[in-house]
From TrEMBL:
Family the entry assigns: Belongs to the ABC transporter superfamily. ABCA family.
GO molecular-function term, one example from the UniProt record: ATP hydrolysis activity
Lineage: Eukaryota, Metazoa, Chordata, Craniata, Vertebrata
Protein name, per record: (raccoon dog) hypothetical protein
SMART domains linked: AAA
Length: 1531
């Protein structure tokens, strides 16, 4: 890694941390969300008393039982004499009055247990499995005994895990909430478009991944450090982890954090959409916790290999690790660095070290999958590699960086008359069709012609299907990384970070583009000053206007000395001033660069294009300079284009543009005649020029259409293709087709428009279909929800009710591995020695170890924990190998009991011990058992019985004892193995995923302003939300039916049997009725649909889990809480739909199961089967009834839905009141008496008289004048920020019917803010806005008011239509069709538009206003402004000066001599723009002079016209830079 690459990595980290720091509220909320769970555990620890039992011995001398006469002892078989004698003898020796009953076979015994309801008092059953053949057979020397008892688990440690399972769940839950936030943030910032852009500008893929890894790794360190402090610090009485090493816990959790980060990376490679990746990834991560429930049930039967294998899931490894941590804590040992390679107990061979290694292995495997998927499926970020790429030498060693020196000839097209010869003096920078250094190549085409695809191919997003593309001699399919080092790219959509400022963007990309540190500040300042953005350098990008964002994108593309620059519609959305600044900057920066630019502005192409290429339907039709193309496609070279703007009274001042052609020799006389007869002929204005680029563009597309027609005629198989393309390219229509357009529009005008109730029905139907289509188009999310219900819910339900027969367990020491059996002998006797010898034989047969006490006497100390270092000495004395790290012996009188009491570690490796005390006339045998192993008592007795039996019958005698749980009685409580709350927990996850979906479209439409457009178009609030609510309930009901199918499959009869599915469906639908409006309300808290979906899904899930937990605690400690606390808890819980649903489902399930139990013919000893209970319906208000929860769900729906409608209708009025009445008044009080300073004195001095008259006219109108579509009265908008921003400054306006009014201004002048106020999206600070007499500043949500406005075109009978920058991004043909439509619309309504195209405003607007810093600076019709400010002609001449620059100077001298009083407006690259005073010469004479100068001075092209609206706009919009108003009058 070189220094510049390291800088890239560092600046990526800086960018990630800066973005996170700017979202400080979200960051704090994430941390608190994680920490709330450890805090809950701390509070639980404070409220609960915990204590540890010391291990001690209980010698078994006799058998005691309370009320023994009530219990039964069963034996099998009962028809064998010796067995009957043994059982009677046992009863006598135990000295208890227990009933003894025998059965002839084991089958009879099991039938008795299952069907006889008196069997619940069976203590145990002893089965002699000896294959007796007759009743008089004796017992064999090797006997098998099976004892049966109540069903229990193998070890008590299982209960420890179950007891602390809540701790595990809560810890995992807190970690999951942070993971979802981090994963969503990662998916959002690593989206395909943003990552693609970073790769294109030169970043390497691994650097991006590494930066994200270390970013989130750092935040994990903070989170886990805080958790470890809370767990290990002594905050209350005792810390949660008293014995464990906090540093080890930190490392363990960090290993899991690393695996989680790589898991997120892996999941993200399978998805392209942010919301789907974040949703699916979070659900998959959460779902990986579920297998732990099954694993823990079978854990005792799993081998070490299986346990290690399940740790391939990092969350399962986390769960197993926490369970071991809890075990060691309960053993008062804890997990430390010195015991991570020791097993927790004898029965569990999975050690903590394996878990740590598996977590790291998981991270490695997840990373491998990420790398592989990212390489073969990079999406739109890179060229995909073959699946076997890792076997290719070129992948690891890189492609050979061979630079192609010999240029490709005849690239891409066969030369013909439509392609200009290429210059031989320039070097080809891009070789498709040669694009040369020092030139700006313009690529034109209609929308969808293939321009963006070309740029995607050049940036490496897509590989070429065939042929080759070279950039600076490098093949893009082999050396794309080398190409990207010198590539600058401006995409069609601005890819900026919302929370970075302009200067931070430029700093970031300057480092990414490997600019040295001492150069970045200079280049940044130069770029900002060129684009007039120095004042905005510390402004966040999300606060910039659209034009400013485009400027920033262009600066990023140009900086860093990029040799090849690709610009995709760079000036789209810019105002004319910014567009010209961009042109000048591109002209400056094109030296030694190859620039490819796409645009829809023909004047931009004409001005910038060195060569201009036109594409039609993916094919390059022509390429050459603008002069070459005009000459090629203009057959009448001796003609002049005359443009007339005619005044047509029928259309009430709608302007029509007419293009006429005349011979040059007739043109001078024609112009003179038109000037004299202009008013008489109704001509508003006229101009003259030769062929324009717009005409060339239209003609090229028409010729391409005609060629397709010819091909379709000769080749029938092309006919279908032609028809499909005609439908796609139906906008390719010249202006002379406008008659057919008007005829179709006139037909539409005759369509009857619905009003009243039919209109509401039509709107409701449309909104309903729209919602359904949104759901259908998100089919991947729908499949995800189906899989959650079918897979996860089914799995959880089956897990909850799953029961399996526990196998027979042999009571043998070998079940615990190789253990240690200490013993002690006090006194000497032959019996004692015989017993010890038999014990040695028995243990050797079982592969166990017996320890001689004299070893302890030799060493004289307890060997714990230094056993490892002393092991060789022990082995030499004992004569046996020592297996196991720990053991313990005794000194004092060789008594084992003392060692067991003093050394707690001993219990981990010993199950039983034996003490023999020889007295005068008796020998006392004491067997000791380890209470931690559940069957150790019976196993210890089995060892002692075998030793005694061997002493009596010889060394070959043995007794084999096995334990098997009794079968469960059919009438027992196991009939209802789960309660209703467990069922609710199983349903909570799937229902949370489903309910959370209903916020997606709501947030999307609100953030994209789609909802606002619908409201403005006349849709009422009630229609909008009720249609959405109806579809969402239908969608929810479909999944409820699917859930009923899951209940049927899982045999949940309580929900489906005996028509109970109707009750279940009613509960589910009531839950949907109340929860869906709550999701609508929650959606207002989010600006991202994906974030809303994830957070609301978590809210639904955890609200269910926590409400259940609170309910259980509240009823368990019912009397311990004051009455008002209980009332408060109940009141809060009843407001949650999830709680009422949980109670309804659980109580419904419990009621069904208990009544089903009561129908069996058994004594009523387990449940209350009184007549009152059986006959009482579950729909009651009692303790077990669900009526109150039903009513609560219904009321919640009736509460949340009106609350939603009320919030939607009154929020705007409330906001308007706050800003209009309170904040503005407070601001006025503080600013009263202070003189406001204006940055430019010219603004105060210059004010148009027309604007004053308009203000007086607006103020004089009565407030409820309904025949005036739009009235603004002293409208003001102030944003109370720091500093205060005055967006609109006291403007007044009246827009009449049949009028098209245009708002013009630079980016940030206040146009969009004015539009937002007019459409009700923003509130006013002061003033009034009247639409058809209605004051929208009072309530914009009134249906009667909404019906007067429209954001669309004609498909609603509105009186006012608002169009904001309507033609941005449209090609010329589509733009002409749009203009024709709008002109036709002026017949029936008022139209208000904003635009950056002066040609568009001149063609459409009857009046317009130019805004400067929130104020109108001039107002009137286009012709009025031209007459007022147009006292000059505009002359634009293009001179071919490359080889003879002297011609340019001579031409300047010629203009100075011929036209005195001229002003040079702009000059660059051989293009000169002059203002020629009108009084100096007439237009016709001027034309004849220029015709003579064309040949004399080598003019390529020229145009003469009166001052255009754009030139006036440029002057007025920059009035603060104009020295005096006389400079304007000079025009």
């Amino acid at each position: 890694m070189d220094f510049l690459t390291f800088n890239q990595f560092v600046v990526l980290l800086w960018k990630n941390f800066t973005l996170k720091r700017r979202q400080v509220f979200t960051l704090i909320l994430e941390i608190l969300t994680v920490l709330v769970f450890p805090v809950m555990i701390l509070l639980f620890r404070k409220l609960t008393s915990f204590f540890f039992f010391n291990l001690f011995m209980i010698p078994i001398n006799t058998f005691f039982l309370k009320n023994p006469e009530d219990w039964e002892l069963i034996y099998v078989p009962s028809n064998i004499d010796v067995v009957s004698e043994i059982m009677e003898s046992m009863k006598r020796n135990l000295n208890i009055n227990v009933k003894v009953q025998g059965f002839a076979s084991e089958i009879e015994f099991e039938r008795y247990i299952e069907y006889d309801y008196g069997s619940h008092k069976v203590l145990a059953a002893i089965i002699f499995d000896c294959n007796f053949k007759s009743s008089s057979d004796p017992l064999p020397l090797q006997k098998n005994h099976n004892s049966g008892g109540s069903s229990d688990l193998f070890t008590e440690s299982y209960y420890i895990i179950q007891r602390d399972h809540n701790l595990l769940t809560i810890s995992a839950t807190g970690h999951f909430t942070f993971f979802t936030d981090f994963f969503f943030l990662f998916c959002q910032r690593n989206s395909a478009t943003m990552k693609e852009y970073q790769l294109i500008i030169g970043l390497q893929n691994w650097i991006i991944w590494a930066a994200y890894f270390f970013t989130f790794f750092f935040f994990y360190i903070i989170i886990i450090s805080l958790i470890c402090v809370l767990f290990s610090a002594k905050i209350f009485r005792e810390p949660i982890f008293r014995f464990s090493d906090s540093s080890f816990i930190f490392v363990f959790l960090m290993c899991h954090a690393i695996a989680s980060i790589f898991f997120a990376f892996m999941v993200s490679t399978f998805f392209n959409k942010v919301h789907l990746a974040a949703s699916a990834g979070s659900l998959l991560y959460f779902a990986t916790f579920f297998p732990f429930n099954t694993i823990i049930k079978y854990y005792g039967h799993m081998t070490l290999t299986q346990k290690v294998t399940v740790c391939l899931s990092s969350n399962v490894a986390l769960a197993l690790g926490i369970s071991r941590l809890l075990k060691l804590e309960l053993k008062q040992i804890g997990v430390r660095w010195d015991n991570i390679w020791r097993p927790v107990n004898l029965e569990d061979n999975l050690i903590f070290g394996y878990i740590l290694l598996m977590l790291l292995l998981d991270a490695f495997l997840y990373g491998i999958v990420t790398w592989y998927m990212e390489t073969i499926f990079p999406g739109q970020c890179d060229v995909p590699q073959p699946w076997y790429f890792f076997l290719l030498r070129s992948y690891w060693l890189g492609e050979t960086k061979i630079r192609k020196k010999k240029e490709v000839k005849n690239c891409g097209q066969t030369p013909n008359k439509h392609f200009e010869a290429e210059p031989t003096s320039l070097v080809a920078g891009i070789q498709i069709k040669h694009l040369h250094k020092g030139q700006i190549t313009i690529l034109l085409g209609q929308n969808g012609a293939g321009k963006t695809t070309i740029l995607s191919l050049l940036t490496g997003r897509y590989p070429p299907t065939r042929e080759e593309v070279y950039i600076h001699g490098f093949d893009i399919s082999k050396n794309i990384m080398e190409i990207r080092k010198n590539l600058g790219f401006c995409p069609q959509q601005d890819l900026l970070f919302n929370d970075l400022t302009i200067s931070e963007h430029l700093f970031f990309y300057s480092v990414v583009k490997r600019i040295y540190q001492n150069m970045y500040s200079m280049e940044i300042d130069h770029m900002l000053s060129s684009f007039n953005l120095l004042e905005k350098r510390d402004t966040l990008s999300k606060a910039l206007s659209g034009g400013m964002k485009r400027k920033l994108s262009i600066i990023i593309a140009l900086m860093g000395g990029s040799q090849v620059v690709l610009l995709d519609e760079p000036s789209s959305g810019m105002d004319p001033v910014s567009r010209r600044a961009t042109w000048e900057l591109l002209q400056q920066y094109k030296q030694n660069r190859t620039i490819l630019l796409t645009t829809h502005y023909m004047d931009e192409a004409d001005l910038l294009g060195d060569p201009i290429a036109i594409m039609v339907r993916g094919t390059l039709q022509c390429c050459g300079s603008s002069v070459f193309l005009k000459q090629t496609y203009e057959k009448h070279l001796e003609t002049i284009l005359l443009t007339l703007h005619t005044y047509i009274p029928v259309y009430r001042m709608c302007l029509t543009k007419v293009n006429l052609r005349f011979l040059k020799k007739l043109f001078e006389a024609l112009i003179d005649h038109l000037e004299k007869k202009q008013k008489e002929l109704g001509i508003a204005s006229f101009g003259a020029s030769i062929t324009t680029m717009e005409e060339v563009f239209v003609k090229v597309n028409n010729l391409a259409d005609s060629q397709m027609d010819i091909q379709a005629t000769h080749f029938p198989f092309l006919k279908d293709q032609k028809m499909g393309q005609d439908m796609k390219w139906n906008m390719n229509m010249p202006r002379y087709h406008e008659t057919s357009v008007y005829s179709r529009l006139n037909e539409m005008a005759n369509i009857k428009v619905n009003t009243g109730f039919p209109l509401y029905c039509q709107q409701f139907h449309s909104m309903f279909i729209k919602r359904a289509l949104f759901t259908w188009r998100n089919w991947k999310l729908m499949l995800l929800q189906i899989s959650v219900i079918l897979v996860f819910t089914t799995y959880l339900l089956l897990t909850v009710q799953f029961h399996y027969d526990l196998p027979t367990r042999e009571l043998d020491l070998s079940q615990y591995g190789r253990t240690i059996v200490p013993y002690s002998i006090s006194g000497n006797s032959d019996l004692a020695l015989n017993l010890i010898n038999n014990l040695k034989i028995f243990l050797k047969r079982k592969n166990q170890e017996l320890w001689d006490p004299w070893v302890a006497q030799r060493f004289g100390a307890c060997l714990w924990p230094r056993a490892r270092s002393w092991r060789p000495g022990i082995e030499s004395h004992v004569g046996l190998p020592v297996h196991g790290a720990c053991f313990c012996l005794s000194l004092s009188l060789c008594k084992v009991t003392k060692y067991l009491m003093e050394n707690k570690e001993f219990c981990d490796f010993s199950i039983t011990a034996l003490s023999i005390e020889v007295e005068e006339n008796k020998t006392i045998l004491t067997v000791l058992f380890n209470n931690k192993a559940y069957h150790s008592a019976a196993t210890s007795l089995a060892v002692l019985d075998n030793v005694l039996f061997m002493s009596l019958s010889g060394p070959n005698a043995s007794i084999k004892v096995a334990n098997k749980p009794q079968p469960l009685p059919l009438h027992g409580s196991h009939i209802m193995p789960t309660n209703g709350l467990q069922i609710v927990i199983c349903l909570a996850f799937s229902l949370a995923v489903l309910i959370g979906t209903f916020c997606l479209q709501t947030v999307t439409e609100r953030t994209t302003r789609g909802k606002h457009i619908q409201f403005v178009s006349g849709v009422s609030v009630l229609t909008y939300w009720l249609s959405a609510f109806l579809w969402d309930l239908i969608y929810f009901s479909i999944f409820c039916c699917l859930l009923l199918g899951v209940f049927t499959y899982c045999r949940m009869d309580a929900f489906v049997a005996n028509y109970n599915f109707l009750d279940t469906m009613m509960i589910l639908m009531l839950y949907g009725w109340s929860a869906v409006p709550l999701m609508y309300l929650g959606s207002f808290l989010f600006s991202s649909s994906t974030a809303a979906y994830i957070k609301l899904t978590l809210f639904n899930y955890f609200s269910t889990i926590f409400s259940i937990s609170i309910y259980i605690i509240r009823h368990h400690y019912d009397l311990d809480f004051p009455h008002y606390i209980r009332t408060l808890i109940d009141s809060v819980l009843v407001m949650l739909p999830s709680y009422n649903f949980a109670m309804s489902i659980s109580k419904f399930f419990n009621d069904y199961e208990m009544k089903k139990l009561c129908t069996r013919q058994f004594p009523k000893i387990y449940v209350n089967c009184s007549k009152t209970f059986i006959e009482n319906s579950v729909y009651n208000f009692g303790k077990h009834g669900i009526a109150k929860f039903f009513i609560a769900l219904a009321i919640l729906g009736l509460f949340y839905l009106p609350l939603l409608l009320c919030l939607e209708t009154t929020s705007w009025s409330l906001e308007n009141f706050v800003f209009h009445k309170i904040i503005s008044n407070v601001h006025n009080i503080f600013t009263k008496g202070k003189t406001s300073t204006v940055s430019c004195q010219v603004i105060n001095n210059y004010e148009d008289e027309v604007i004053k008259n308009e203000e007086n006219r607006a103020l004089a109108l009565p407030p409820k004048l309904k025949n005036t579509p739009l009235v603004l009265k002293e409208l003001t908008k102030i944003y109370y920020k720091c500093p205060v921003v005055k967006a609109i400054r006291n403007i007044s306006l009246v827009v009449q019917k049949y009028e098209c009014f245009g708002l013009l201004g630079l980016n940030g002048a206040g146009k969009t803010t004015t539009f937002k106020i007019l459409t009700g999206e923003e509130t006013t600070t002061s003033g009034a806005v009247l639409i058809d007499g209605f004051n929208i500043t009072k309530n914009i949500r009134k249906p009667s008011l909404l019906s007067q406005m429209s954001g669309f075109l004609y498909f609603y009978e509105s009186s006012v239509v608002f169009l904001d920058e309507l033609s941005t991004g449209l090609d010329p043909v589509a733009r002409c069709l749009l203009w024709n439509t709008i002109t036709w619309m002026c017949r029936s309504k008022a139209i208000i538009i904003t635009s950056h195209s002066m040609e568009e405003c001149e063609a459409l607007c009857t009046r317009l206003a130019i805004m400067v810093k929130g104020k109108f600076k001039c107002l009137g019709s286009p012709q009025h402004l031209k007459n007022k400010f147009g006292n000059a002609y505009s002359l634009t001449a293009k001179i071919k000066f490359e080889n003879n620059k002297s011609k340019l100077e001579k031409f300047k001298e010629f203009i100075a001599t011929t036209f005195p009083g001229y002003i040079i407006n702009q000059e660059h690259q051989g293009i000169i723009c002059y203002y020629i005073p009108k009084q100096e010469i007439c237009w016709g004479k001027m034309f004849s002079i220029l015709e003579e100068a064309k040949a004399l001075f080598n003019l390529e092209d020229y145009s003469v016209s009166r001052i255009t609206l754009e030139q006036i706009f440029l002057t007025i919009a920059n009035i603060d830079k104009t020295e005096s108003i006389q400079e304007i009058k000079l025009l």
